[in-house]
Write a structure and sequence with these properties.
The longest helix has 5 residues, at 8-12. The protein is 1% helix and 55% strand. With 372 residues, the protein is mainly β. Strands 2, 3, 5, 6, 7, 32, 33 and 34 form an eight-stranded antiparallel β-sheet that branches. The chain is globular and about 85 Å long.
Length: 372
């Protein structure tokens, strides 16, 4: 977090410099002694800009640098924290709005895990028959888990007490879940896609046009559109209110497991877990805008800040793409990845996968000081 000065270039201009002095405004902040060329100032506020003057001198000559203007730049995600979790063959991950809890489902076992990121405490909660689908409420009061293996049970949990609030059965396996912004309705993937009331589990709407297993769900910002991807290798946009199929995007040659709107909603981003491609679509025309060929499956696509796209891949890599869909950072901290989620308020990525053991890892955007 501190500012480090390298005075080696100044030293080349002098013969045998004896002392390096660094002044912050009019205050002397360091006097490291003879032949020292690096100094770190830790007494700084990362929200402010500073101007430094570096002086290098010997007994008979003195050199003072021009003023150095610097600022703190947030630019790259770095590993932040990790937690061991039970083994699984697959699962989903979500972060609570305050980033103080992370939930991971477990396809294989009869329980799933909630992690308190403040104290590291892990809690196992029951979901007989394995769990897959997972959704976090926008107000942070509850989360929802869904079953696999034909158990078809939805469970609604209080996020604070981790107690079961409600449960009800659906008509199919629950691979993907999505709450609306007001947190009173729950979209459930399947064949067909359905919407249920959170309060009593009653069926609100059935999307009869959807006739294949759905593996990915996203709302548009105003929730008038529902974006889906599924096992018919297609991406679709549905009218949320009427259920009308508005547009079908055809181009993938494998099943689609991740979808996302671009920040301005002019584009659609979709990833296949079979054909190893990410396709960028023009939302209005349905044409392919860009094809990104990869050597591994896409498991999650999230919107980051400033138009960035966060892509998690099955080979364990997380890629950060800019608004032109160019990779600006990629890191690989897993051997295999199941799912990733993003928290915008904390600028935090949570990922669930394996690296010898099964782990949840958090990645936070870290900055550095840079001359301006």
């Amino acid at each position: 977090g501190g500012m480090t000065f390298d005075a080696s270039h100044s030293r080349e201009r002098m013969k045998d410099p004896a002392v390096l002095a660094i002044r912050k405004r009019i205050t002397l902040v360091g006097d490291p002694g003879p032949n020292v060329t690096l100094y770190t100032d830790n007494a700084i506020d990362t929200t402010k800009n500073y101007v430094y003057i570096v002086e290098v001198y010997s007994s008979d000559e003195k050199f003072a640098s021009d003023s150095i203007k610097i600022e703190y730049i947030l630019n790259k995600y770095h590993f932040f924290m990790e937690y061991d979790v039970p083994s699984s063959v697959e699962g989903k991950i979500v972060i609570s709005p305050d980033a103080q809890k992370v939930v991971v489902t477990n396809y294989w076992e009869d329980y799933f895990t909630v992690i308190n990121t403040v104290n590291g405490i892990k809690t196992s909660l029951p979901q007989e028959g394995g769990s897959m689908g997972l959704a976090m409420s926008h107000n942070g009061s509850f989360f929802v888990t869904g079953n696999t293996h034909n158990n078809n049970k939805i469970k609604i949990w209080d996020l604070n007490t981790l107690s079961l609030k409600n449960q009800f059965y659906t008509n199919h396996d629950d691979y993907e879940l999505l709450t609306n912004h007001s947190d009173d309705q729950l979209v459930i993937s399947g064949e067909p896609v359905e919407i249920y009331n959170v309060a009593d589990g009653s069926l609100v709407k059935t999307y009869l046009e959807y006739k294949t297993t759905c593996r990915a769900l996203k709302f548009s910002l105003d929730e008038s559109l529902l974006l889906t991807g599924g096992n018919d290798q297609k991406v679709k946009i549905l009218n949320t209110g009427t259920g009308e199929l508005i547009r079908t995007f055809i181009g993938h040659t494998g099943n689609v497991g991740a979808v996302c709107f671009s920040t301005d909603e002019s584009k659609i981003i979709s990833g296949s877990y079979e054909d190893n491609t990410i396709l960028i679509w023009d939302k209005s025309s349905g044409n392919i805008y860009k094809t990104i060929t990869r050597n591994y499956a896409t498991v999650s696509i999230c919107n980051g800040r400033n138009g960035e796209i966060i892509v998690a891949s099955s080979n364990g890599a997380i890629s950060i793409m800019d608004q032109d869909y160019q990779v600006i950072q990629e890191f690989k901290d897993f051997d295999m990845l199941f799912s990733a989620d993003y928290n915008s308020s904390s600028d935090l990525i949570a990922a669930y996968g394996s690296q010898t053991d099964y782990k949840v890892k958090l990645f936070k955007k870290i900055g550095h000081w840079e001359k301006t």
